[in-house]
Amino acid sequence: MRTYNEKISIYHGMASTIALNFSNNFFPIFAITILGATNYQVGLISSLPPFMALLMTIPAAILLNRAHAQKKLVAMSVLLARLMFLLIIALVYIPSTTLQAWVFLVVIAIMSMPNTVANIGWQTLIGGLVSDSRRGAFFSVRNRLLTMVGLVSTLLIGILMKDASDNVTAYQVLFAIAFCFGLVEVFLLMKHKEEPMKMGESIAKKKVMDWSIFQHSRYVSFLVAALFFNFAWQMAWGIFNIYHVRIVGATIFWISMFSVGSMLMQILTIPLWKKWAERQSNIRVFVWAAVGMATTPFLTILSTNLYYLTVVQTTSGFFLSGTVLILFNLLLEQSPETSRTYCITTYNVLLAVVAFIAPQIGIWLLNMFGIEIAMTVNSGLRFLGAVLFFIVYIRFARSSL
User: Fold this and answer.
1) Which end of the chain offers a freer environment for a tag, N or C, measured as fewer CB atoms within 10 Å?
2) Whole-structure pTM value
3) Would the pLDDT of 61 be above 80?
4) Which residues neighbour 187 within 8 Å (Cβ) at sequence distance 6 or greater?
5) Which range (94-98, 204-208, 306-310, 352-356) has the least confidence?
6) How far is CA 58 from CA 119, 336, 346, 349, 352, in A?
7) CATH architecture of 211-396
8) 14 and 145 in contact (C-beta within 8 Å)?
9) Where are the domains of the chain?
10) Which ranges of 34-95 does DSSP label H, i.e. alpha helix?
11) 1-208 and 211-396: same fold?
12) Interacting residues of 222 by C-beta distance below 8 A, sequence separation 6+
């Protein structure tokens, strides 16, 4: 039986998934087809959010640590971010198409600021609202339901956008729908039942940074392994897009099939990862998920057959479900409860650095050595990330089993 906060969190996640599926996924296409963005500008759409997150994470931590009720700050941050959708709807009326693209990038950058506060705040908030004993089961169910919602919304968008990729009104309708679901997000966030922080606790948490978190060897070991794995994971994202579109010639239909196959596999296998993690421990099972993730780049370059690539992407969804589910659980598990906000903040700051640098290094590898070597190197780095987590498991986890 799920608790009240768990139910509300699942509903909130569904609204958030729909809002993002109807907006962020279409930003690059919107910029190219409607705003006439250059390749450089399209690249900035991916680079600006982690860069702004890097600048905003410390201020976000200060705000969250001083907040008596974090859910209000998180909800207001989500509202500010979703209001940006209205600006995107309106910017097509700017006379100059060149100016439109740059204004769009400015809006993306501004949107990333409240998004950073919202993301860190939600991680901290949910970590306090869901008990350790229920966390694995809760996130397993939540991730599965959210993936189902994402699958349905992706199929729906594919149908709606089939013949409207260059229609301004179609994009405006999508962004308007995203804004409406953003309002639902805010409403559901405020429905969470949070115990307000006592005055003494608030004063005690007003420090900008608690450097004592680096004295916790479990957290530091997790941090090193997780950042390296994320670096290897994210550096291939741009390479995959280039391979699928430019080399394989995949159409929107096939790109959609890749996503649908992956999401279907995630829906089916999330309960398995949850069961395995409960039996074997989160960190031990994550090693196998990371090893599986390492096979995807190598398997992808073996063929340009679209049916084969659909199978590869579907298979990757099996390991992706385990990665997404367990990695966040590990962050909460390895973060000392008394300084969890600082641990999550530090993780997000460093993750933003990784997210900004990794894709650029991936493209550099591609330009220097070609697609096959870049993908093979990425598989190797992902496997090394799994090895690092195995070392952490050997060092700490086995003693607690």
Assistant:
1) N
2) 0.70
3) no
4) none
5) 204-208
6) 13, 19, 8, 8, 12
7) Up-down Bundle (1.20)
8) yes
9) 1-208, 211-396
10) 39-66, 70-90
11) yes
12) 283, 330, 331, 334, 392
